[in-house]
Amino acid sequence: MDTQPGTVPPTAVRGIPPLAGLCTFAEAQRSEWSVEECVSALKRLHYLFRRLHEVLTQRITSEPQFELKTAYSLHAYLCAEHVQALRGRVSEMREPPLGLDVVPHAALQLLGDELRKAPTTLEFVAGVYVVVVPALQVGIAESIGRTNRLPDAPSARILRFAALELGDLKQFGVEALAALRTAEPTSDSHLFTETLAACLAAAGGPLGLQPETPCPAPKHSVQPYVYDRVPKRDSRFQDSYNAGVNPEAFLYDERFQPRDKLLMMLYKRLREIDVPEMMASILSETSGKPWAFTLDMSRQLWDEARHSLMGEVGFVSLGLDWTQIPVNFTWSLNLNTQLSPQERHAVLFFIEQGLMPRTGKRYEWEVARESGVPLAGVIQDFDWADEVLHAQLGRRWYVSEFKDLKEALAYGDACWSRVMSHWQSYRDQGLTGHRNWWPEFYATACATQGIEPDPAALAFNTTYAAVRADLKEIAV
């Protein structure tokens, strides 16, 4: 050590953790795994995370239970993030071409195919959270336990993050499964989970480190998978075809007070559950896009589900029962069944871009702050921030396919204009009477808060029959 003349080197202090705290000297001398073996394990985990993301996303639209629909949205996004991290790490380890689209074992493919075709919600939840999530936990623990955590510190780091979030998924699954089994005591998922477990065993476990067993025959996946793009809702979502109240028309009417507009904004937030239902169809029916597209769209899908949950929390904070009002689903229903994936994306971007001017998300935030409810300001503040991000994602993945922004917006407007709202048809079929639920709900909200209803607000009666959400007239 070089020192200045007359100085004494500092004394080495014993007890400071060595090796930057990553591991012990004994652990740092492990030599079981080479780069090739580490990469093989990471590719297996990548495949399982990617298939789990796929099956969760494909289930969102047709899952009726609100709590599961939103949880699948979150869990699919988390899987997408871990897929991205694993892809990045593999690319650092002398692996061009990466081969990340190669199925590592036929039995793992069968596992994903069977899970995707789970015939009931109970079986699907059991398959995800009793079989696949624990398999990922085991695979990650094996990887961290076998690799040398000093030279392979980057892998160990991303795996530890994944293990943390998998623990949250597992806990959610345990509680959800217990609730489902209580609600359906005669239903059984054991045969289904046994089939999935047999697929894992046939693959030699999640990492292929165990002796392989015979692969089971396909059961539910014998027939080709067909994506169900029709949204499903549980019994709390009553009168889902109801388009008898146009909240946007109320929100932008200068006659009404912020305290009353807040109720419509919370309804709009809760109703955003139809956006994940639609976005899941884009992800499920679009092919040939880079993984970065899937990751960004999965993030936005989860954000929209989170916005719906924020609306639910807003109603709970005011002591209001949101199940007493219709939460319409015809936007996702009509887009999913009438437009192509690209056309749905076009409508999504057109709407998102329309939220950017001062009359959009900033206006909603200002109304929320003036409502006298602090939580409302927080909800709209973060909702606004999310929507700015979503507009950027739309420019990245949608506008880039057009000559310019103007052309992209025009196409989105045209696609939305082509969607048949079926307002009159739904009423003629007896699916809804388009009841104006607003006066009753508004009166209840005022009574709960101990305030007098505004007669003008109480008389509000604008529907979606002739005007869509951006207040543009619907062509008849």
Description of the molecule:
The protein has 476 residues and is mostly helical. The chain has two domains: 31-213, Ferritin (Up-down Bundle); 247-458. The chain is built from 18 helices and no strands.
Structure, briefly:
By secondary structure, this protein is mainly alpha-helical. The protein has 18 helices and no strands.
Q: What separation lies between the terminal Cα atoms?
A: 86 Å
- Compute the CA-based radius of gyration: 26 Å
Fraction in helix: 55-70%
Extended strand count: 0
User: If you average the pLDDT, what whole number results?
Assistant: 95
Secondary-structure content class: mainly alpha
- The dominant shape is globular
How many individual helices?
18
Low-confidence runs: none
Largest sheet features:
none
> Strand percentage, roughly?
under 5%
Domain unit count: 2
Order of helices and strands: HHHHHHHHHHHHHHHHHH
